[in-house]
Amino acid sequence: MASQSKPLATSMNARIMGSGSTTMVLAHGLGTDQSLWDDLVPFLISSNQYRVLVFDWAFSGAVEDPTLYNPVMHSSYEGFASDLVMVLEEMAVTSVIYVGHSMSGMIGCLASIKRPELFQSLFLIGASPRYTNTDGYEGGFEASDIELTISAMVSDYAAWVSSFAASIIDPNHPAVVDKVRNSYLRMRPDIAVPLVDAVFHSDYRHILKEVAVPCHIVQTRNDRAAPTSVALYMKKRIGNSTLEMMEVDGHFPQLTAPEQLAQLLHRLSGPAASDTAVGSGGGGGS
């Protein structure tokens, strides 16, 4: 945990950019850091509609405090959800538009259930409540796939990172592959291995029905980490939700198609969005 004399938001490198009246929170996913949003933020703040809050999760290689990641507290998404709520409180923001990528999608859902007044809406990009397949549910991975992943990470973390980055990102974007690979390499292996194990063995399907905040599920083509079957599953179980399909490939649209993603976020959270009934959903792609 962070020192009691130092605010958690400071330890997590939280900062706000832009001068708009609406606060949009960008939460990065597993293995990365807030630089994941560098290409997206200029498109968001240029309209002067949004203030954009970014931060680094405790596991991130960008966090300087080596004690911030607590292996007990952060062995589940609940610990991260508590961190998120505290950061929002310390930064004195409420009614935020929350954009959660990958594991941060479910973290945002948990935080919104705990403190709904803090959230105006949720955007879940490449999110998944469960990664492994089971009866009647297609998460994208077999249990044996996860065990092989953990084994490869333990055996040679750097080699696994290179292979993983190349497999999860559109190969037409080599600079993005390099960016994600370098971000993962900055994460300590002693944190990365148990965290990946916990994330890929997690199951938060049961919380979806409790999400009351308006929710937009954002799905790309050929997302190896979160296939379309997962997005369709979430759409059926989150009552106040839409499903938005992006005509781009891979798990990182904020890196491969930042302008398209910004247009989608603005379309669904800008002034005109209030005239559209949330829940009618399905699939206007950007």
SSE order and pairing:
Elements: H1 8-11, E1 15-17, E2 22-27, H2 41-45, E3 50-54, H3 77-90, E4 96-101, H4 103-114, E5 119-125, H5 143-155, H6 157-168, H7 174-186, H8 189-200, E6 215-221, H9 228-237, E7 241-249, H10 253-256, H11 258-269
Parallel strand pairs: 2-3, 2-4, 4-5, 5-6, 6-7
Antiparallel strand pairs: 1-3
Features:
286 residues; Rossmann fold; seven-stranded mixed beta sheet; 7 strands; disordered C terminus; hydrolase activity; AB hydrolase-1 domain-containing protein; hydrolase
Molecular structure report:
This is AB hydrolase-1 domain-containing protein. Keywords: Hydrolase. It comes from Trapa natans (Water chestnut). GO terms for molecular function: hydrolase activity. Helix 2 links the parallel strand 2 and strand 3. With 286 residues, the chain is α/β, with parallel strands linked by helices. The chain has a seven-stranded mixed beta sheet with strand order 1-3-2-4-5-6-7, sandwiched between helices. The C terminus is likely disordered. The protein is 39% helix and 15% strand. It has one domain: 3-Layer(aba) Sandwich (Rossmann fold). Helix 3 packs across helix 4. It is globular, with a radius of gyration of 18 Å.
The CATH architecture name reads 3-Layer(aba) Sandwich
Q: On the 0-100 scale, what is the average pLDDT?
A: 92
Distance between the termini: 40 Å
- Output the CATH topology: Rossmann fold
CATH class: Alpha Beta
Main sheet: which strands, in order across?
1-3-2-4-5-6-7
Q: Regarding quaternary structure, how should these chains be classified?
A: single chain
Q: Proportion of β residues?
A: 15-25%
SSE arrangement, N to C: HEEHEHEHEHHHHEHEHH
Characterize the largest beta sheet: strand count, sense, and whether it forms a barrel: 7 strands, mixed
C-alpha geometry: globular
List the domain count as a whole number. Answer: 1
Helix content: 25-40%
Catalogue the unreliable spans. Answer: 274-286
The total count of helices amounts to: 11
Q: So, the CATH homologous superfamily? A: Alpha/Beta hydrolase fold, catalytic domain
